[in-house]
Write a structure and sequence with these properties.
Blueprint lengths: L15 H16 L6 H8 L3 H7 L3 H25 L4 H18 L6 H8 L6 H27 L1 H4 L4 H22 L3 H13 L3
Helix pairs in contact: 1-2, 1-4, 4-5, 4-7, 5-7, 5-9, 5-10, 6-7, 7-9, 9-10
Amino acid sequence: MLSTMSTATKFSTSSARDRILEVATDLFYRQGYRATGINEVIDKSGVAKATFYKHFPSKDELYEACLKVLSENELCLVDEGIRCGNDPHSRLLAVLKWLETWAVNTDFRGCAFLHAASEVPDHNHRLRKVGTRLYDEIRHRVEKLAEELVASDTDKYGQLDAKVLASDFMVLFSGAVAMAELYHGIEPIRHAVDAFERLIGK
């Protein structure tokens, strides 16, 4: 999300910590974790080196803080989309459809959490776990919505298994995120929406 799955997140600049987070989030997202140095973050955020290390003793801790803020923002956007739906079907589709706005707003740069995974090989590393938790939270919401969808019309959806449907949905979701970045366009997201409709027999 996905990262923000989004660089549209804006932090308050009322404190040095917030300025550091704002600058670092943008740099990590655009340049990558390994290509972004601490000195560049310090210089562009306009804080003293001692101030930086007071808030973030290491680069890993800074990156983790940035990812956590992005994760919270992404979940808020997902929840906002879900609330706009009038029924389980439209609420499920909303989770996919909001990706169009997200992809455009991030200039198809992709998911910050998938980027983190590609730069941190250890799957048990805490930096990767931030993204894992985000996708788990999205899946939890999707599974609940899938259960509501099945219960809403047993004649139409009774043959569907909500857990399996949630797993299939997340494959479409994450695939749309990755392919939108690869092809720099929203068509993969729209295809994912169509594929989901076919999946549930609409």
